[in-house]
Backbone:
């Protein structure tokens, strides 16, 4: 046998011993996966896990019962929520366009104190007590509504009616504003006509009055300077003419007496 053969035989022996030791270790310290029991006590891993699983399954029915009960409550609450949403949507549309004398607007009534009889506490919404269809006898109905009035004590109208009234008021205000603007424009025109406006080239009545006063003053001044002297001269000349006329009459009488002039 060559040296290589001896080495291979030695290695084969060593590997076999290693595998044998590993197999013995697994056998001595191995896990019992069987469902073996000793004195009705699970020893095998399968029996131990089966016992734990059976113990866990015992807790499932109570938890499942609670879950099913809570699920029923959730479904009931969701059904109530759907009904409430329909009711609230209807009331919202009623606020916008629907109130009438027979069906006025209302506000949700809130408890102002605790009520031991009904179990309602302060701050909770009061219900009308009428069970809704499909929600069971335990349903306490929709929120209770109280008549809603304005400050004057009248029932509130719909939002559409108030908007329509606002539109009418705004239109009336707009008409008044337009009327006032026209009156302001007319007042400005009359003011310009009275006091004038140099920028617009308008002579006002006051300016015209001042101009006429200035003209009167010029006329008076002209009367004093030119016409009055002429008037005085005219009066003096008229007196001279009258005197001359008297003299001529006397001369004519003298000539008549002397028969020089005709009596005619």
Residues:
């Amino acid at each position: 046998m060559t040296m290589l053969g001896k080495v291979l035989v030695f290695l084969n022996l060593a590997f076999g011993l290693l595998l044998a030791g590993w197999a013995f270790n697994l056998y001595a310290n191995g896990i019992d996966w069987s469902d073996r029991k000793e004195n009705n006590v699970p020893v095998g891993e399968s029996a131990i896990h089966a016992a734990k699983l059976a113990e866990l399954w015992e807790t499932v029915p109570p938890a499942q019962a609670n879950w099913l009960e809570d699920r029923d409550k959730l479904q009931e609450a969701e059904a109530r929520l759907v009904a409430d949403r329909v009711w609230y949507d209807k009331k919202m549309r009623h606020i916008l366009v629907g109130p009438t004398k027979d069906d006025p607007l209302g506000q949700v009534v809130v408890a102002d104190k605790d009520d031991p009889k009904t179990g309602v506490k302060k701050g909770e919404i009061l219900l009308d007590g009428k069970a809704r269809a499909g929600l069971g006898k335990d349903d306490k109905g929709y929120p209770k509504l109280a008549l809603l009035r304005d400050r004057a004590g009248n029932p509130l109208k719909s939002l559409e009616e108030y908007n329509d009234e606002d539109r009418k008021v705004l239109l009336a205000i707009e008409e008044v504003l337009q009327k006032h603007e026209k009156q302001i424009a007319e007042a400005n025109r009359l003011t310009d006509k009275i006091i004038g406006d140099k920028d617009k080239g308008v002579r006002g009545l006051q300016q015209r009055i001042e101009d006429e006063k200035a003209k009167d003053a010029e006329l008076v001044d002209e009367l004093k300077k030119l016409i009055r002297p002429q008037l005085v001269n005219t009066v003096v000349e008229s007196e001279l003419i009258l005197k001359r006329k008297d003299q001529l009459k006397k001369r004519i009488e003298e000539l008549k007496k002397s028969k020089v002039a005709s009596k005619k």
In short: The mean pLDDT is 80. The two ends are 215 Å apart (CA to CA).
